[in-house]
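Researcher: Here's the sequence for the chain we discussed earlier.
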Amino acid sequence: MTLKISFTNHYGQVTVKKLLEEKCLIPRKIRHFLRMKKHVLINGKPVHWQELVEEKDQVLLLFDEEDYPEKTIPFGQKELVDCLYEDEHLIIVNKPEGMKTHGNEPTEIALLNHVSAFVGQTCYVIHRLDMETSGLVMFAKNPFILPILNRLLEQKKIKRDYLALVTNHFPEKKITFKDKIGRHRHDRRKRVVDEKNGKKAITIVKPLKYLPKTTLLSCQLETGRTHQIRVHLAHHHFPIIGDPLYHPKNSAKRLMLHAYRLHFTHPLTLETISVKGDSKTFEKGLA
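Model: Thanks. This is the structure I predict for it:
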């Protein structure tokens, strides 16, 4: 066996099938492996698919190497990792601005490589931040939890809150931007509002603090399009200070966008996880 996943059933009385499929959101292919190999153990004993699992029963899932082929990446520098939350399945770290979440080439060293060195094994990206953006990023510590966390993200069950310092005074109310976002025709780095061919994008924005010529905003993502917050705010004439793509005339030293909070329910423990990051570096730019 190459991987063992154990957890306590907190979902009440439920069949094995429903527990793995509907509660734990385990993908069909993985459920098939577990069922065919009889690699689901409840309180240490193999069970049938329709057998009942009771509240607080101990669940053990066993995986062979063929279920999850080993994947290795170059390790980075573990001392560069600012870890804010970690359990046996996932880790949340604070990414500095100017660092990529993951490399574009197999040998390129980025935050993913540093986190893998910190954990001591290959980790997996759940969501990413633009290189210029600082703040919280979540990684899976094993391939089992990866698709489960990805599904939570798709179902909007992982809430991501950002701080943004923008040009001009934002209206004194919460606004939800729903402009569709697509690729720029002539600049592959950029995205634009494109109601005809773009993809659904929803950003909830509310003002937090008014400064002489700028506004500090709280932004919450309901979808995760590339450059979503940056494009929505620039399109509505509130470009982010220091944005090299959507506010290039501004001379700020950094993009004033920071992912400061992640909030979700852990899919295996049902704990409410709310992590708030350090925004001191970001706040220096408000002065």
